[in-house]
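To whoever picks this up:

The nightly regression suite flagged START-like domain-containing protein as changed. Nothing in the input moved, so I suspect the structure step. Input below, exactly as stored in the fixture:
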Amino acid sequence: MSDKINYELEFVIQSSPQMLYQYISTPSGLSEWFADNVNSRGEKFTFIWDGSEEVANLLKKKSDEFIRFAWEDDDDDCYFELRIKVDDITSDVSLFISDFAEEDEVEEGKLLWTNQISSLKQVLGSA
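Regenerated output under the current build:
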């Protein structure tokens, strides 16, 4: 069992759930804001940053709702998930991030996601 702890973040995004899903679930969408380049072969996604590669396996997805990945080199039950929720009353679209980190790295992880989502908002014209 891992010592990593789960944390969640919520970001309001000015976008339709369908468009947002394309940016969180496809290699071309992810490479516009999450990594320098993203390739996929079946359930394996290769994320490339500054020449280094990380491979993640697609664990689950539901169209226009969520996608869940696990880093290939993590030998525990950790994953990261991007989930789209639409408020029933206001119709606001939110993106919930669920991720895991060592206790002393949670704040760093939150900051990293905040920066990544800022890039996503710029790409979507939602910033």
